[in-house]
Amino acid sequence: MQMNHATFTRSPALRLSLKRGYATQAIARAGQDSADLSGLVRIAAELRPNPKALSRVAARIKGRPGVVQIAASADRKSLTFVARLTREIETRVTGEPVFAETGMIYLRMRVRVSSRGVGFHLSAISFCRHALERLVERADPDLCRGLLPVIDGEACAMFRAWEAGRPFDEAGDTFCPAAAAGVWAGGYDALAMDPAWALVSTTTASVPIFSARTFLSEAEMRPTVWLRWKDDPACRII
Length: 238
What we know:
Elements: H1 5-9, H2 12-32, H3 37-44, H4 51-62, E1 67-72, E2 78-93, E3 96-114, E4 117-127, H5 129-138, H6 148-163, E5 168-170, E6 173-177, E7 183-192, E8 206-216, H7 223-230
Parallel strand pairs: 4-8
Antiparallel strand pairs: 1-2, 2-3, 3-4, 5-6, 6-7, 7-8
């Protein structure tokens, strides 16, 4: 039996049947290639205010496990990279734990040299298994290389949307535009900094993290969410 990718994406039944397998495989692959954040911080701390040092540090970071993206600023004084790892993600309701499972966390570090030394700005995004399954079920991602590269791209796109102020709140939930045709629904939480990172916070000892709990295509969105996602001034509820 032969089945091409076009057949898969046109078949909701096949996507529904295979979603759990793709999500499980993505988390397992991420666990095998998990980032060593302590090691990345040590490398990034060697950044110096000259192009040669920046290129050297960038090359070392890029070659480390779990690093999915790295870029230098236009002034060549800072680096921004995204690293992927797996962790136990705990869901709480009114402060009480109700559910825990292995999920993926993407940590973005912006490292900049200043007169006071090397500074780090951190933010993070997490995906639970349910969210990964819903993307497979409700969108048509290119799964030729598996789901993990797709989620790597989604995380990087979400960081860009976050920085641009595109996430929005609606009826108690937070929605972030996805690279696929839809939105990630979830909320903002706090990720505790690991003492092993050897970072000293000037504000708080936690990292802001957007927890993506599910994926919504256009068909699953409430009208008000759809309008906010479209962000079209010609669209209004009358």
